[in-house]
Specification:
alpha+beta; OB fold (Dihydrolipoamide Acetyltransferase, E2P); transmembrane; cell membrane; heme; transmembrane helix; NA-bd_OB-fold
Length: 149
């Protein structure tokens, strides 16, 4: 085999390996990509069942129910227009409270309940996750336009 052919085979082999590496990285990235949705998005059917995503908003007052095992909790997260029931098994963040902002990551089941694998809470008095704040503002604006003639 001529050196020219050897060089061509080497270049093609290197490009093949590079292409395979890029495909593996993109595949891993796609599997770990988690989108944020508001409760209004979820209720309107914009999210597929059993798709992992984040839902955020305000923990509805009076909705937090702790189970007998001490670790399981259920609550409703709302953007002031729509509320989605959430269940979570594990210890909640210390700052998790009713009436405060929270983001939960998990999956929506066919019964309309969001099963969270992780719950994040605000970190001070004035903070709400930007996605949740935007979703709440959007829902409040939609409510104002429906009320006003």
């Amino acid at each position: 085999m001529k050196t020219r052919h050897k060089r061509l085979v080497l270049i093609l082999g290197g490009l093949s390996l590079l292409g395979a590496a890029v495909m593996l990285v993109l595949s891993a990235f796609q599997q770990n990509l988690v989108f944020f949705h508001s409760p209004s998005d979820v209720s309107s059917g914009k999210v597929a069942v059993d798709q992992t995503f984040r839902i955020g908003g305000i923990v509805e007052d009076g909705s937090v129910r702790r189970q007998a095992d001490g670790l399981s909790v259920s609550f409703v997260i709302t953007d002031t227009a729509v509320g989605i029931p959430v269940t979570y098994s594990g210890s909640l963040p210390d700052l998790f409270r009713e009436g405060k902002g929270a983001v939960a990551q998990g999956r929506l089941t066919s019964d309309g309940v969001f099963h969270a694998s992780q719950v994040l809470a605000k970190h001070d008095e004035n903070y709400m996750p930007p996605e949740a704040a935007h979703a709440v503002d959007k829902a409040q604006e939609a409510m104002r336009t429906m009320v006003m003639p």
